[in-house]
């Protein structure tokens, strides 16, 4: 079955003074059908967070352009991209006297394979139709409490420490990076990468339904509109990228040169 890709990236500044998120969908410079989606949520005061997130996207693009699809490991490429960004963000402290950090979630799309990795609390959701196949688990204090059974999912939604991260790029400690992949993606699969400024306003069922029932572009527009309404004037920066795998429609046969259709009399 031939697969067609429907993709869109979008973001909104929310109610913050500055946009510190960065989002991109980057095609491979040479390999057909290979692309990289990136969402980075920067932190670190005025301009610092934006610079950190920008570094994540820049490093990812550099590594993608150098990626030899037939020879290199997809997971290693993503991990190297995040570790290199971590090193560069740390080095920038000495130049701008700020304390920049960034989360990162990346998805590498290749024919017959989808690979992703993340650090922090920017997420990736994998849907098949409207059903959630799985999502990344945040490197956050609240997810740690959930895993330990100390709070319920309902308590996690409004926990006072829900924004406390246990890992990020640019911090003092080595980043925690989680990687995964699907080796037989199928028509009907959809992947949503997003910062916490978006996912905080949706449960899995609603998110999956909106993505399944709309094109990637329409879904981005609807999700941003709903998040903005639900933020009620207190919304964070929000960014997302949606990658939908659809069944490709068969191409119509091309008439031979000089063919003139016969019109009914």
Topology diagram in text:
Elements: E1 3-12, E2 21-27, E3 35-43, H1 48-66, H2 74-96, E4 101-102, E5 104-110, E6 113-119, E7 123-128, E8 131-135, H3 141-147, H4 153-157, E9 178-182, E10 189-194, H5 196-199, H6 204-212, H7 216-231, E11 238-247
Antiparallel strand pairs: 1-11, 2-3, 3-4, 3-5, 5-6, 6-9, 7-8, 7-10, 10-11
Helix pairs in contact: 1-2, 6-7
Please describe what this structure looks like.
With 265 residues, this protein is α+β, with helices and mostly antiparallel strands. The longest helix is centred in the first third of the chain and has 23 residues, at 74-96. The chain contains 7 helices and 11 strands. The chain is globular.
Task: Provide a quick synopsis of the model.
The chain is α+β, with helices and mostly antiparallel strands and 265 residues long.
Secondary-structure class? alpha+beta
Sheet bearing the most strands, described? Answer: 6 strands, antiparallel
Mean pLDDT: 91
Element string (H = helix, E = strand): EEEHHEEEEEHHEEHHHE
3D shape: globular
Rg value: 20 Å
Distance between the termini: 40 Å
Relative strand content: 25-35%
Q: Find the count of extended strands (DSSP E, 2+ residues).
A: 11
**pLDDT under 50 segments (min length 5)?**
none
Q: Write down the oligomeric state.
A: single chain
Helical amount: 25-40%
Count of DSSP-assigned helices:
7
Highlighted features:
11 strands; 31% helix; single chain; alpha+beta; globular; five-stranded antiparallel β-sheet; 28% strand; 265 residues; six-stranded antiparallel β-sheet
